[in-house]
Amino acid sequence: KAKNKGRNSQAIFQEDMRTHSVSQFQLEMDLRDAGEDQQFQLYYQPILDLNIGKIAGFEALIRWQHPNRGLVPPIEFIEIAEDTGMILAMGEWILKEACSQVQQWQQQFPQQPPLFIGVNLSSRQFLQPNLATTIANIVHHYRLDPRGLKLELTESVAMNDVDSAIQQLTYLKDEGLHISLDDFGTGYSSLSYLHRLPIDSLKIDKSFVDRMETNQENENIVGTIVTLAQRLNLDIVAEGVETIDQARLLKGLQCQYAQGYYFSKPVPRNQATKLLSQNKIWQIDDV
Ligand code: C2E
Ligand code: MG
Ligand code: MG
Ligand code: MG
């Protein structure tokens, strides 16, 4: 009986593998059509300046409206897009869309400093030797004030090939663009690299922000990252702020920028425009 059971679970396992790879394969096929069928959309999540309680910019986040599966989150398809190389065309589309959008917003809602847009770069994109010139061309094409584009890359993307990263980032910085290190604290970058990389800001990962309220030690970690950023002359953004208490603590720790569901989830373009025209001020009394 035990033998039978063993064989059955083996069969089930194989069946499972098959369904899994079939659906992965199907997703990959669907992904190939998605661009042409305009199933991709950028959503925008506000990034607040905590000092004034107003929107300073947005992060662009890709969404895939699949014809039968509904909204497919990026974690389910970015990796496939990377493995197949589709990320290159997709990434270029994202940059164009984001630049053209923020340029429009800068015109419609002028403020000092101008509204910015954060755009995520994947490792495959970053390994393209012509990435920097491609991005510079897009910025020129849309006549975007380059301070308005903030490229977000994770520590692992930057650490992949540090020398080439320094070269690409230096070029982009000379073009006037802004570089952010995303999910800061979750990777394994050494402080000496952090110092060598020409970056402009750190985004504190959500996991640190989450635990901040419950534990003094975690609040100290966030405070220490903020101090580190100040010492290195970097801007600092907290990710994943979900409660007013987190927002207050962050403001008290002199973290200037924050984004998260407490302020707004990522929203489609029209809703983001509406948020800007409301010119809403979030009242955050620091502690
Ligand atoms: P990320 O760049 O760290 O983006 C932040 C993620 O946290 C987003 O998830 C956002 O919706 C989510 N988030 C923001 N505030 C909160 C909050 O208060 N609570 C919670 N629970 N989540 C919050 P999303 O849009 O699902 O994106 C996940 C990841 O996929 C991104 O992480 C990024 O690495 C990647 N991604 C998204 N869009 C793009 C893109 O256009 N290009 C590339 N290369 N990667 C992208
Ligand atoms: Mg990001
Ligand atoms: Mg992030
Ligand atoms: Mg993240």
UniProtKB/TrEMBL annotation:
<feature type="domain" description="EAL">
    <location>
        <begin position="24"/>
        <end position="280"/>
    </location>
</feature>
<protein>
    <submittedName>
        <fullName>EAL domain-containing protein</fullName>
    </submittedName>
</protein>
